[in-house]
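Thread: quick sanity check before group meeting

JM: Hey all, I'm pulling together slides for Thursday and realized we never actually wrote out the predicted structure for the chain we discussed last week. Dropping the sequence here so it's in one place. If anyone has concerns about the input, flag it before I start.
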Amino acid sequence: MIVCAAVIGQQNNPLYLQTLQQEGGDKSLRFHYMVHCSLDAVEERLAHPPKSLGEPSDAYLGLLYPTEDFKIYGYVSNTRVKFILVVDEMVPKDEEMRLIFRRFHTAFVDAVSNPFYTVNTPIISRGFDASVQTIMTTV
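JM (edit): ok, ran it. Output follows.
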């Protein structure tokens, strides 16, 4: 089950973070910390992509790192916007995670396509909130 979903901007600025656990501010702060720490793994993967010559790069970064209670997965768009998902003990298969990230990316594109949205600012949208909530709970 996905317990946290985050969108990080091109300059590693947080654009969006939603958690499922409603256990107070301390848990939310813990997820902020995990997402922030995962950016090092994302940057490392982007700097040294594991691909052969002539093969297109994959937006899905896979497992970035595990913690004691969670596993952190990553995805990066062509515009270097990063998507981070924190998953608890029930980890979906790689193909399922790819599909989840594609849905997450599509919801993001829909949200930022709003003509009233300013690029690289926090995403405040009830529609995006609902889409992310649906993605997080249907795993």
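AS: nice. Residues 112 and 118 are 8 Å apart (CA to CA). The mean pLDDT is 87.
JM: adding both to the slides.
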